[in-house]
Design goal:
Blueprint (H helix, E strand, L loop, with lengths): L16 H39 L1 E5 L5 E6 L3 E2 L8 E4 L6 E8 L9 H13 L5 E5 L3 E5 L2 E11 L3 E10 L3 E10 L3 H12 L3 E2 L1
Antiparallel strand pairs: 1-2, 2-11, 3-4, 4-5, 5-10, 6-8, 7-8, 8-9, 9-10
Length: 203
Amino acid sequence: MSPTGSPHTLGLPPFRPENQAHQTRSEKRPTCLFVLGGLVLGLVALVMTIVWLRARPRLVKSTDSASQIIVPSDWEQKSLNPNAVLGVSDPNGSERLFVLTEAKLDLAPDMTLDSYAEICIRGMQEDPELTLVEVSHPDRIEIGGRPALQYDVSARVPDRIHYVLTFIEGPKAFHELVGWTHESTIHQDRRLLVNVTATFREL
């Protein structure tokens, strides 16, 4: 008998062609998994790049150069209100925001943030183009270190629209930031409108 012994004496199974085929298939399996894993990682990287490019901020200044805001890179400047000093929108027009500014010198000396907000809200409620207007209680917040009031308002114009209204008292002016989207998508859009609003600064 050979010093190395036969397959049987070494406890190895007898050689069969199917065993070789099975072994070959097993050896190929890690290569397939490696290729598949590489494709998945590449896809994830692509998605993350697209998200990053959309989220990369872009600074937009008002037409009077007295204020600024930061928006996602794919947002565009738009003329959304004839009195607005700044207007922006996402590419689909589903999320929009504009800024109205009034210098304190043009208002009553005793004008406060609360009274300014009340006047603007009342004007919105009395607007004949808006119906079924519902206004939330305001949240008292700070934006850029300045006092602000933030409201959620829903109205029909004629479709159901949800507004995020924010009133900010700056050193030299009062600002009204009007962000809006469709009522049906407010749960996914509101956070972005609030985040964009929070970047507002009076210059």
